[in-house]
Amino acid sequence: MGEFLNVPEIFGSDVFNESVMQERLPQRIFLAWKDCKINGSQLPLDTANEIAEAMKVWAIEKGATHYTHWFQPMTGITAEKHDSFISPTGDGRVIMEFSGKELVRGEPDASSFPSGGLRATFEARGYTAWDPTSCAFVKDGSLYIPTCFFSYNGESLDKKTPLLRSMEEVSREAVRILRLFGDEETRRVIPCVGAEQEYFLLPKDLYAQREDLRLTGRTLFGAQPPKGQELDDHYFGTIRTRVSSFMKDLDEQLWRLGILSKTKHNEGAPCQHELAPIYTDANTACDDNQLIMEIMKKCAAKHNLVCLLHEKPFAGVNGSGKHNNWSLSTDTGKNLFSPGKTPRQNARFLVFLAAFIQGVDEYQDFLRCTVASAGNDHRLGGGEAPPAIVSIFLGDELSAVVDSIIQGTNYKDPEKSLLRIGVDVLPAIPKDTTDRNRTSPLAFTGNKFELRMLGSSQSIAGPNIALNTIMAEQLSRFADSLEKAEDFEGTLQTIVSRAFTEHRRIIFEGNGYSDAWKEEAARRGLSNLPSTAEALPTYVSPKNIDLVVRHGIFTENEFRARFAIHLESYNKMVNIEARTMVDMAVHQILPAAIRYSKVLCETVKLKQDVGVSCKGETALIRQLSAHTEKLWDAVEVLKKALAVLPKEVQAAAAGYRNRVIPAMQTVRAEADALEELTDKSCWPYPTYSDLLFY
Ligand code: ADP
Ligand code: MG
């Protein structure tokens, strides 16, 4: 029997949230903070001082001795530096102090974070600024203050700042559209995100025995086990005890931090699981997802497990992704992707839908680039996860509506005149709860879009910045023409039907895994960027730069810095993997095969002495020798490929993609062949069977 856990009581108990603030702050201060949160107004220093004091008292009661400015540098994970509250009184004693200045601004030594050239080495300083829209919390004895991270010149060095800017943009443009529909009450539109997180859990002792897992987060070698996921016996299967006690512990920690962890289950591959929180605003969802990933890792260690967030830990079974469910909601709680009940609500829905379709089609490369990474290259287009080609799945009902508007023909009912936007009621569009087309990278599921291209280890900031920004762009274009229009209904009809007609090509209802789709997509002129090395150069196309600069999401410098960092981290990752392969092949795999060959050779000699046939042993020795030789050659080829890489990053990325990765594949094939031939007791590390079916 488990102990009783009072969930409503512990939920959010470690968060300095709105209700705590209301309780602990003078009314005037609380209202000033709310105004700052909602309208982005400046907080005067005396207000910040009072909030800091209340935060400190609260945090100390929760056991905190330190505070930290918590930020999200461009590495994609979070960073923190802890300062204690102590302040000497001059007589050998200390008091606990925390000022408004310390709350609002910090100066971590930032020289080791990637800046993509934004910060010259002589100006190593980076600054952090409190983000009052996301809540501070206590964890591991520290008060965590969510912050933005920027350089001395005010250039953003993080993932949070552009996300907040994109949320502002889409809100402003969406409100313009709402006003045209007579909505005077909405003050803000909030991008909402629910990010489903997939992960693997392995026993710590087995993990520790594999250098590839330790250094790269994935297996670089491993022959296929006799059993994989073909029986589908893991998906939604019963959760084993060690894992379920991990999940229970994890939920409790997340709930304490106010994270709405809702669903947990086994996933398709052996040892693979998923956690889904209830959606919140995009900024909080992004913070929360970072915490989820971090706490998963720490919590796993406590249970003698290791949590793998890599996109493809094992060849031959599913990799891990993150489903990013995205929608727009008004501050009064209306979901703008909900097909309404009245013609007017339907019309509003169609405008947002048209903007989305047009935006995704026009900026497919931008969206594609935000999910590009060395790890995710193994998934996208891998025949299990969405293809690298961006397309939108609408479902039968909605695509019939779209086609009817394009063709100006009747929707289903031949008696009815054509569907006139703003006049007719849409047919009922059922909320999809069945994941009808899992092969689609971007599916409409009733009142939200589910972007399934994200890798499991990636920050969700990037794709949400892209979704918000392309949406802001299209809404602003629509608002420009609608605000000027003399005939509102007519202009509406024209805008929506033009968007559907011109961007129909991005809508695809069929099987995204099929080769036929690749050909069809090429005919439609959709881009297909199968790898990071091919995708990223399109990131900084003039069209994308123009988009992000015009909306104030990034300066051109900031944007180019992201490009440089993503490309560099691709190169670094592949480089580490390749060198780990060489290391394991030379120091572990070849010696194991040679040792086993020696045993066999000795056996043959001994058997020959007693006059027994050695056909099997001899055949085995020959095969082992053949693969040993080929492995040695393959390692040489790989080492050479690494040695001749060009210096310039983009050329180097192409070299990794075109020469290093194919060489790695050959090394692996030979090593795996040796694994299949070698006595298990000689093999230097746990095999796929050991890892996946422990
Ligand atoms: P599934 O069929 O994939 O389980 P769910 O509706 O349960 O779909 O939602 C999956 C994720 O989508 C959850 O994180 C959920 O909170 C989130 N979600 C649901 N509605 C919305 C919405 N309107 N906007 C953003 N995310 C949403
Ligand atoms: Mg889903």
Mind explaining what this structure looks like?
- The protein is of the alpha+beta class and 694 residues long.
- It has three domains: 7-158, Ubiquitin-like (UB roll), CATH 3.10.20.70; 166-216 and 230-554, Glutamine synthetase/guanido kinase, catalytic domain (Creatine Kinase, Chain A, domain 2, 2-Layer Sandwich); 569-692, Four Helix Bundle (Hemerythrin (Met), subunit A), CATH 1.20.120.1560.
- The protein is built from 22 helices and 18 strands.
- It has helices spanning 7-10, 18-24, 27-39, 45-61, 100-104, 160-180, 204-208, 211-216, 241-256, 282-302, 343-362, 364-369, 396-407, 461-484, 488-502, 515-524, 532-535, 542-550, 556-609, 615-643, 649-677, 688-692; strands at 15-16, 66-70, 82-84, 86-88, 94-96, 105-106, 126-130, 136-139, 142-151, 189-203, 261-266, 272-277, 280-281, 305-308, 321-330, 392-393, 442-444, 449-455.
- The strands form three sheets. Strands 10, 11, 12, 13, 14, 15, 16, 17 and 18 form a nine-stranded mixed beta sheet that branches.
- Strand 8 and strand 9 (142-151) form a beta hairpin.
- The longest helix has 54 residues, at 556-609.
- It is globular and about 100 Å long.
- The two termini are 26 Å apart.
- The site of adenosine-5'-diphosphate (ADP) has 16 residues, from strand 10, strand 12 and strand 15.
- Adenosine-5'-diphosphate binds at residues 192-194, 196, 276-279, 325-327, 335, 433, 435, 447-448.
